[in-house]
Amino acid sequence: MATYGGVYRSTDNGANWISTNKGLSNSLILSLKKIGSDVFAVNLGAGVFRSTDDGLNWSSANGTMTNYYGVCLTTKGTDLYYGAFGSGVFRSTNKGASWTLTGAGLNSLALMSLECDGVNIYAGTRKGLSRSTDDGTTWENLNAGVLDTHSITALAFDSAHIYAGANDGFYFSTDNGKIWTDGGGTLPQNPTVESLLTFGNNLYAALGPDGIGNRRTTAGRGRHSM
After folding, report:
1. pTM of the entire structure?
2. Quick count: other Cβ atoms within 10 Å of Cβ 182?
3. Domain locations in the chain as residue ranges
């Protein structure tokens, strides 16, 4: 049986870690985000929790939420966006005190990832990728005939690219989602990309058990890993 440890905090760049789970419903944490000095966590089966003291204590931030089964969370400015299975995207403008269900035109049955590029909100599902340019009110399909059959599990951005990690590889677009290119290169065959991060000139991909470990490529090239 798999075991989960919840939230840990380090104040010395990872040299030491302490458990900070007080107030959480369980120890299965699927996403962490920050707004100002507040930290928010997706607690599987229990919705969203908030900490105002660096994770020492947690309290429910579900407010008017009606679906506690979600895996993804993102922020835009001081707004929170929470992806819930079978419902769509919930948006909160008051740090979880109340929520509004959005997602017209969104395949909401299986949300896998949510990210913001600073302007737009992107939602990865089991049937590709959608984008909202109006804070979640409406969504447009960005599959371009390529991502339709892929579960989009991770997203990242730089000034020239949208990067989409999937259940079976990695794709990128240089034209705002109109055309997608397979960028797997020397990644293990058909890995699940669990997380993506752009940092400086590099793009980092964390792979699931089938791909094993972390990989790095020069951002923008998407064909080489090490």
Report:
1. 0.88
2. 13
3. 1-141, 156-226
